[in-house]
TrEMBL record:
Its EC number is 6.3.5.5. It catalyses: hydrogencarbonate + L-glutamine + 2 ATP + H2O = carbamoyl phosphate + L-glutamate + 2 ADP + phosphate + 2 H(+); L-glutamine + H2O = L-glutamate + NH4(+). Small subunit of the glutamine-dependent carbamoyl phosphate synthetase (CPSase). CPSase catalyzes the formation of carbamoyl phosphate from the ammonia moiety of glutamine, carbonate, and phosphate donated by ATP, constituting the first step of 2 biosynthetic pathways, one leading to arginine and/or urea and the other to pyrimidine nucleotides. The small subunit (glutamine amidotransferase) binds and cleaves glutamine to supply the large subunit with the substrate ammonia. This is Carbamoyl phosphate synthase small chain. Composed of two chains; the small (or glutamine) chain promotes the hydrolysis of glutamine to ammonia, which is used by the large (or ammonia) chain to synthesize carbamoyl phosphate. Tetramer of heterodimers (alpha,beta)4. L-glutamine binds at S45, G218, G220, M246, Q249, N286, G288, F289. It comes from Methanoculleus chikugoensis. Belongs to the CarA family. It holds the Pfam family CPSase_sm_chain.
């Protein structure tokens, strides 16, 4: 089965399709992780994006559903150099894609596509499985809206509030597309978790009498998380605020800071971050937006910084009891250098 990937700059590449015939469009992004491919594909933060793996062979150990970050694949499509056809366990990635109506392309030069993305920045793309019409793929890519113009959070947030009962501190979670392992990291520490849809009001959140407010990851432009921004703005200072990934961006926006779209973002399981004490951790990340350090208000201090490009990877505000990080300390597809450091600390410091 033929497949073609077209980019808005006029590039098109033909490869081997897997999954089912069809078309999808979105922002083409790359991740450098070598394992955890299903964690990445099922991460709600990849909604609206076509996910490309730089590691040349994907699917070696099959599809491990116990490590899914959500019940389904959220990436629009998958791009890989090679898909393992005879993995260590079944089903294979190709079989899973076919059974679940998903789109993928293999047999393409992912190195070249990654270099292009790093050089010119993230591009809109269209994947057509069942065709090799490059002109049509390019046309569809150019017709796709920029990711900042698409409201993706509503498609991945829970429709109604729900509770994961625990005997410990009560934590209200604003669901912008929160990953399962974030909730599990909180739950392992005994937290009584109350999860709210992205549209929750401050009054609805406070009705649960939380000991802390938690804002997690999500897809697209953080400025579209208007309800969550309002919650943090109104509740900061009343309850501790904790943020991961989009949560740090939402919190910064609530405090009056600004965010910006990165050239190609940080996505992978090998991102080094330096803590304020000088120690370095290897982290898993998935974000295309970042906090503008120059706009952070007085009282906010940078706690983590990316070793590669110097961008903010965490900030705190002791007066308002705010702790946020840009990376994913709970990640199961990569190193767990920061899981205990982050979650033990935030849980211990909740009054």
């Amino acid at each position: 089965m033929k497949a073609v990937l077209g980019l808005e700059d006029g590039t098109s590449v033909v490869g081997d399709g897997f999954g089912v015939e069809g078309t999808c469009s979105g922002e083409l992004v790359f991740t450098t992780q070598m394992t955890g491919y299903m964690e990445a594909l099922t991460d709600p933060s990849y909604a609206g994006q076509v996910l490309m793996f730089t590691y040349p062979l994907i699917g070696n150990y099959g599809v491990d559903q116990q490590n899914f970050e959500s019940p389904k694949v959220h990436a629009q499509g998958c791009v890989a150099r090679e898909i393992a056809r005879v993995p260590a366990a079944r089903p294979s990635v190709a079989e899973y894609f076919e059974e679940n109506g998903l789109l993928g392309i293999s047999g393409v030069d992912t190195r070249s596509l990654t270099i292009k993305t790093r050089t010119v920045g993230t591009l809109r793309a269209s994947l057509i499985v069942g065709s090799d019409d490059g002109d049509e793929a390019v046309r569809r890519a150019r017709a796709a809206p920029p990711i900042g113009d698409v409201d993706l959070i509503g498609s991945v947030s829970c429709p109604e509030p729900y509770r994961i009962a625990g005997s410990g501190k009560r934590i209200a979670v604003i669901d912008l597309g929160v990953k399962r392992h974030i909730l599990e990291s909180l739950g392992r520490r005994g937290a009584d978790i109350h999860v709210f849809p992205h549209t929750a009001t401050p009054d609805e959140v406070m009705a649960a009498k939380p000991d802390a407010l938690f804002v997690g990851n999500g897809p697209g432009d953080p400025r579209r998380a208007t309800h969550a921004i309002r919650c943090v703005r109104d509740l900061a200072g009343e309850v501790p605020v904790i943020g991961i990934c989009m949560g740090i961006q939402v919190t910064a926006l609530a405090l009056g800071a600004e965010t910006y779209k990165m050239k190609f973002g940080h996505r992978g399981a090998n991102q080094p971050v330096r803590y304020r004490d000088g120690s370095i951790s290897i982290t898993t990340q998935n974000h295309g937006f970042a906090v503008d350090e120059e706009t952070l208000p007085e009282g906010c201090t940078v706690s983590y910084r990316n070793v590669n490009d110097g961008t903010i990877e965490g900030f705190e505000n002791s007066d308002l009891n705010i702790t946020c990080v840009q990376f994913h300390p709970e990640a199961h597809g990569g190193p767990r250098d920061t899981e205990m450091r982050f979650f033990d600390r935030i849980y211990r410091e909740i009054p």
